[in-house]
Amino acid sequence: MRSRKIPSDRRFTATHSWLALAPGQNFSDFPLRAGVTDAAVDEVEVVSLELPAVRSTIEAGAPCALVWPSNRTPITVYAPISGLVTLTNSDALANPALVADDPFHRGWLFAVLPLPTSSAYGLLTPAQYAGELSEAV
User: Fold this and answer.
1) Using CA atoms, how far apart are residues 122 and 59, in angstroms rounded to an integer?
2) How far apart are CA 18 and CA 96, in angstroms?
């Protein structure tokens, strides 16, 4: 198990999804990138991805994508917020190993434009997520 990197510019779910938040911006003014944390893909070889379709709507807490490891059942990705999918990461689709190698940067999965009713309520701060990880050990 490698040491966990928890970026300070993200919010997290207990199901190991993340949402990048830009400081000083209104929550629903622009698409936000989302992905899975290194805890979700620890010690697996990611060989395939199933991402939500562009222009589809995802719902916070609902399954929205699958990450397929080489020798296990798929890892279900749960949407961190509700919104409209505006973009998927074509680099990660072409090279799924990016999701495990660099999950917080080059291995992001999709961008979502939050619905006006969406909020960061219920998302974990980096410190809260670190606490969740330490409790799970």
Assistant:
1) 13
2) 17
